Amino acid sequence: MFLWGAATSSYQIEGAVREDGRGPSIWDTFAHQPGRIRDGHTADVACDHYHRWPEDVALLAEAGFNAYRFSIAWPRIQPTGRDPVNPAGLGFYDRLVDALCERNITPVATLFHWDLPQALEDEGGWLNRDTAARFADYAARVAERLADRVGIWITLNEPFVHMVYGYALGVHAPGRTLMLDALPVAHHQLLGHGLAVPALRANGAAKVMITNNCTPVWPASDSPEDRAAAEAYDILHNRLFNDPVLLGSYPDLSAYGGLNCVRDGDLEIIAQPLDGLGINYYTPTRVSGPGSDGLPFRLEEITGYPRTAFGWPVVPDGLRELLESLAQRYGAALPPVYITENGCSYDGIDDRERIDYLAGHIAAMRRAEGVDVRGYFVWSLLDNFEWAEGYHQRFGLVHVDFATGARTPKASYHWMRDLIRGGAGNGPEREGGSEH
């Protein structure tokens, strides 16, 4: 069965940050620091999903989605990142999963979507190897309660983005500015993933995977310098996170200081067999080289394409290019692929631009050759807290009035409903992969 889904994350929608025993996360701390978030917004309330989740499950069901990708807030389960477990936190997700199953919606649970317990950050966060062990313990606790009903488990969401924005550039929580010295964050996240996989399976998890944010990398010209810059960016953005998981090895990182934190046996742990690979795609990346600040590349603007309200170029065929490049690079080592995020920011409820965006990307996904795509998840079900942008970027199929919490389905929501039901006019057909 091909999975048609919508995706969200805990910190972006739940609110209720101080209720029912939830501990503080790095994002609670970061968002309350002056100047960190546009216009001083916080996610203290967000979409109030913690209280309004039955309404959101009903929206999923009405649209016909057969899967829902949500994330679990680690600080709700273990307020300090360690036992004891908070029963109220587990109870919330227990009720959510039950409600999804009652509607024949496959629960797809992400264990880490960037909201690390602040207590673990105080001990070094993902720069500390022990955080990987803490993550595996947390995964086991959640699976003990939910694995009998969750269809797919995703260990980490976009470890590249969390490393770069959170630890290298400081524009996301925890706000560190380590540049290339942030590379151990990559390894410790991947080690946490590798340790969590057997912990999940030991507690009955049916399918386990990781979600990586990937991008086609375009050199700004055919010059040797720009081609070298593209190769360097591809290594740090794509291969650093896919190679260890799929091939059991890191690409050559000697030019970037290497990874002295890798110990014997780590790569065997990271390369646990997976049931799928989640891919989040938004846009290609164009680079020239060399860059400044010791980096071997410089990011360049992509011109000649429409832009979203966020200013991101809309390049649907980049998704086909990305999928085919994964198939070519990894061959038989590439498991089934799920598009776990794809979406865009536009204002308004009559969001025709979003419909065009989704139609183009779904069609591009279907054109990809040599790759087994088994699911497509729109980012996002709801307008939500868009990290450093606060509430200024609206990615949702459903409009949220952040003053009242009221939900209003947009034109794109109705379009997706018609697509899933097989009546999207000239849009792509319902079937989207090799498994129907």
Automatic annotation (TrEMBL):
Whether Hydrolase counts among this entry's keywords is yes
Active site annotated at which positions?
E158, E341
Which Enzyme Commission numbers does its entry carry? 3.2.1.21
UniProt: substrate binding residues: Q12, H113, N157, Y282, W379, E386, W387
* Catalytic reaction list: Hydrolysis of terminal, non-reducing beta-D-glucosyl residues with release of beta-D-glucose
Q: Which GO terms of the molecular function aspect are on file?
A: beta-glucosidase activity
Q: Does the keyword Amino-acid biosynthesis apply?
A: no
According to its UniProt record, this protein's enzyme class is hydrolase
What family does the entry list? Belongs to the glycosyl hydrolase 1 family.
Annotated PANTHER family = GLYCOSYL HYDROLASE (PTHR10353), LP05116P (PTHR10353:SF36)
Name recorded for this polypeptide:
Beta-glucosidase
Instruction: Please report the organism this UniProt entry assigns to the protein.
Output: Thermobispora bispora (strain ATCC 19993 / DSM 43833 / CBS 139.67 / JCM 10125 / KCTC 9307 / NBRC 14880 / R51)
Q: What is the lineage of its organism?
A: Bacteria, Bacillati, Actinomycetota, Actinomycetes, Streptosporangiales
